[in-house]
Design brief:
Blueprint (H helix, E strand, L loop, with lengths): L2 H30 L6 E4 L14 E11 L5 E11 L12 E7 L2 H12 L4 E3 L10 E8 L2 H11 L5 E8 L4 H7 L2 E6 L5 H12 L7 H19 L11 H11 L4 H8 L3 H14 L5 H10 L4
Parallel strand pairs: 4-5, 4-6, 6-7, 7-8
Antiparallel strand pairs: 1-2, 2-3
Helix pairs in contact: 7-9, 7-10, 8-9
Length: about 300
């Protein structure tokens, strides 16, 4: 066979095999995204998100493949993503803002370490402490310096103050009340869970006291009522006993003359008492006075 004939038959065999190779290459391209000389693919348009915030993520992939004559395609792919696949929350959401005041660096570091690990707490830097919902004062005992700090914090009506103390003297109970402390926790009991409970309770307007201190507080209030307020016709509320009785009668539908007969006061006295209550508490009328007294548990 001549050289020319060999070339012709080789060419014919190549032409006969080529379609099969192309088909196989096409088959690889369809099944695996490879084998075509140039291919462009788009990945999943939306990535699942966890957390809160922006969750839609878009991923775009460009694929370039070099097909061999045997039909096997080598795949080279690059992908770039835009957007955020996993959402990240912004803002504080339901977190409680807390400022920590401690008498030494060790106490400060320990308290901050306990709170920083919890996602429901946002620690406020010292420069922004006035915007904290809760102020935690951490001391060994309630001394004059602690009292000064508590009084200063009391002037900020937007924050509630809690005390984490090593040793709490019984005589410090009255001081704690005068300083507006809303919660007390002994340092020996101040594990992370109790701290978080205290902070969240204070943020919700609640008070927290150890059982023994709560008992002493109730005894103290009872003694105050018996020895100081009752002899003067006063109560712990914003109403005197006479004022509370008259507003209770108003809430039951009695008019001025009927209230005067039931209380043994003149009608003029009844009118003056009710007017004094309305003026002092900035109330518009008797119905408003009754509603105020009921909402605040005064009657």
């Amino acid at each position: 066979m001549t050289t020319a004939e060999t070339k012709i038959r080789t060419t014919e065999r190549g032409q006969y095999r080529r379609p099969d190779a192309v088909q196989r290459a096409a088959r690889y391209t369809t099944g695996a995204g490879a084998g075509a000389d140039t291919g462009t693919g788009t990945g999943a348009p939306t990535a699942p998100a966890t957390g809160t915030g922006t969750s839609a993520g878009t991923v775009t992939g460009t694929v370039t493949g070099m097909g061999a004559r045997t039909g096997m395609g080598a795949l080279t792919g690059t992908a770039t993503g835009t957007g955020t696949a996993a959402g990240v929350g912004t803002g504080t959401g339901g977190r409680v803002t807390v400022a920590v005041y401690a008498e030494d660096l060790i106490l400060q570091t320990g308290m901050v370490h306990q709170l920083r690990m919890r996602p429901e707490i946002e620690l406020i830097p010292e420069a922004e402490a006035d915007r904290a919902q809760v102020s935690l004062v951490v001391v060994d005992m309630v001394d004059d310096q602690t009292v000064q700090l508590l009084h200063r914090l009391q002037r900020n009506t937007s924050t509630r103050t809690g005390l984490v103390v090593g040793f709490f003297e019984s005589g410090a109970l009255q001081t704690m009340i005068e300083c507006g402390v809303a919660a007390v926790l002994r340092r020996g009991e101040a594990d992370q869970d109790r701290l978080i409970h205290l902070v969240k309770a204070m943020a919700n307007g609640e008070g927290v006291l150890p059982g023994d201190l709560l008992g002493k507080l109730l005894d103290h209030v009872s003694s105050l009522q018996r020895t100081v307020l009752d002899p003067r016709g006063l109560t712990l509320s914003t109403l005197t006993a006479r004022e509370a009785e008259m507003i209770r009668l108003v809430s039951e539908g009695y008019d001025t003359a009927e209230i005067a007969r039931k209380t043994s006061y003149s009608e003029r006295t009844v009118k003056n008492v009710l007017h004094e209550v309305a003026t002092r508490l900035d109330l518009r009328n008797r119905a408003h006075a009754v509603g105020y007294a009921m909402r605040h548990g005064l009657i």
